Every structure is written in structure tokens, then in C-alpha cells.
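Model it.
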Amino acid sequence: MKQQINIRLGLVSLIAIVTTVISITLIYYNLFQQQVRNDLKETTLLLAETKVFQNPGLSGKKTNGTSEDFKSGKFRITWINEEGTVLFDNDAEISKMTNHLDRPEIQAALKYGYGESTRHSDTMNMDTFYYALLLDNHTILRLSTQARTIGSILVTALPVIILIVIIILLGCILIGHLLTRQLMKPLEEMAGNLDGSSGSPVYKELEPFMTTIRSQHEDILAAVKSRQDFTANISHELKTPISAISGYAELIETRMVDAETSIYIAGQIRHNAARLLSLVTDIIQLSELDHWELPRSFETTDLLAAARECVANLKPMAAQKSINLSCSGIPAAINAEPRLIRELIDNLVQNGIRYNKEKGSVDVSVSILDSHPILSVKDTGIGIPADQQDRVFERFYRVDKSRSRETGGTGLGLAIVKHIAQIHSAEISLHSVPGKGTQIRVRF
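Modeled.
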């Protein structure tokens, strides 16, 4: 990043320097041209005031560049009559000079009283400036002078200009490097202090950015910790049934039990294998739900019909504990993935059955409130203490750990419910009173 900033600063400096040099050169050359024209004008007016060019004796004088009266190394003086014939020139033989009536400055002088023009010589790489003045006797006095073109000036000054540009550019690069280092230092310190909640960024503009980065950093750390806890919990949860199955199998293998006990052990092996299968199934499903990028087959689904189907399937499980399982409500259409909605209802109802009292009840209802379909699962079970209600949707969190294992619970049911609700942009609310029961509502 530093290198890119330095390169860009160098390019900006180079562009600024070159642009400045060209702009200043053009400005000063224009000022120089204006000064040349002013000098021509003033000199012409001074010569006109002398009345010398109203003297007929001057007409036809051949100078051949040797006349001492008007010899000048700076200005060329030409006197022309109104027909365009050259009457006098201090730098050329007038007999060899052509008619000047077609010259733009002469035509302008005859029309407006004065005229100006500039002509460029590619051979000499010079510009010639002309100023013509109409005199009282209707003759024209013209002065001209030569000046170097801007191109020749730039070529001559190019080595000096290049040297100056290099010096300034090196200075800009050095200053840019120092400024970049000074600019980046707070950012580097900020990057190294993501965990620190104290201290604010040097640049106020970075406060929202810093807040976002720190929040994301905390989220990442929390996610990493959650993954680590999840892995540790998985290891612990899988270890229990696997150890039990291994131990029971060893007893049978070594024939340390009689036939009647073997039947009991076989039942325990089957129970732990079922628990192991349930754990693996829930873990796989949670892993699938964690991948938000997976395509979802959403379609219009009747929430009441899905609830009735789940209740019918779980009737035998409720009957084993003498729990009354019912379903009521009105049809409510939602845009959802039917398989996931059935999984959500199954987990809520199974929780209501597992943590219920003997001869208790689980009531499933579907309603519509403010155009929002609502699924409600209410039980008369053991309830959840107020200080634990925020944690029941965490993975492997159990209110009653011993009872959960006895009833076959994995501790992942409500975590799966939370994930499915998030996928469907649904909101979950929980109301529970210890010893009286729990109601969980999902608002779609």
C-alpha cells in the first residue's frame, strides 16, 4: 500500500510540475509578445511625431542597411505609400522590394488607422511582429522586429527545465515518502490494536471504519470460539454413547454376562446407537444450515398443514408419556422450504414432549397477526429459568442435562430452530415460567 501511495504521489507531482512549467512558459511568452507589440507601437508613434516620414526627400533613399540615420539592430523601419510602394526601408534595397499593399497590417492601417500582424518563419524558427501606422500625409509607417518562437525557447531551456523538474520531483518523492509513512503509522498502530477498546483513531474519518473493523474482529473471534466450543462439545457428546457401546460390546465379547443380562445390554447398545445416530444427524443438519450460500427451494407452504403433519407423526411419542398433543388454528401461507419448516416444527414439538410432565399437554397453533403468520408451541413442562432463557438456542445447551440425555435429546434442537428461522427471516420469542411451562412463538 505504501508503495502504491508513493507511486501515485510521484505521478501526481510529475504531472503538476510539467503542467506548471508549460503553463508558466505560455503565460510569460504571451506577456513577452504583448511587450514586443507595445514596444513596436510606442516606437512607431515616437517616429511619427518626429515628422521625419513626412519629408519628401526621404522617399526613394536606398539604404542597403547602411543608413546611419535609421540604423537599428532591433527594429526594421519601412515607409510605404498608399499604393503599397515602399518609399524607404532601413534594412533592404527598396528597388528590389515588392508591393506591400497585400500585407494584412498595411490593409488594416489603411482601413482603421493602424494594423498589427505576426508572421512565423519556419526556416529561421523566428516570429516577426509588425505594427503599421497611417500618417497624416496618407503614407504608412511600419516597424517590425523578430523574436524567438516559444518552441525554440523551450528547446534552449530544456536541459535546465529537465534538471529543475528532476530536483523538484525528487523532493516531492521524498516528502511524499515521509508523508506516507506518517499517514500510515496511525493505521498500522490501529491495526495492531484491534482488541483494544480504548483509544480513538487519529483521523476522525476512520472512526466508523474502525468501529466496523473492531466489530467484525470481535464477531470473528466469537465465531472461532463458538466453533472451538462446538468441536469440544461434539467430542464430548459423541464420546458418551461410543464409550457405552464399546463397554457393553466388551462385556458380551468376554462373556462376562448371562443371557438375561445380554438382552438388557443389547437394549442399551441400541439406545446409545440411536442417540449416536440422532447426534450425527443433527450435526450434519446444523452444518448444512451454516452454509447460507446453498440454494434453497422456497415455495408457498401452508403453515397449518405442515403443523398438522408433524403433530400426527409425533402422536406415538407423546402417547408414550401420556401427553396430550393437539393442533389448531387457521391456514397461513408462507414462502418457505417445506422440509425445513417441518424440521422446525418437529424440534419445537419434540422439546415440548421431552421436557413435559406426565399427563401434560403440548398445544400447537397457527394464527395470523398484522398479516404475519405465527406458529405457537405451548407446553405444560418444567419451564426455563429466566437467567437461562437467552441461552437455550445455543448449541448443546440444556436446561436439565440429565433429563435431556434420558429422553434422547441432543441439545441441538433449538439451535436448528434458530438457524431455520434466520433462513426464513422469521423472529422467535420465548415465554416461560419454571414449573408451569413454556411457549415459543415463530413470527414469519
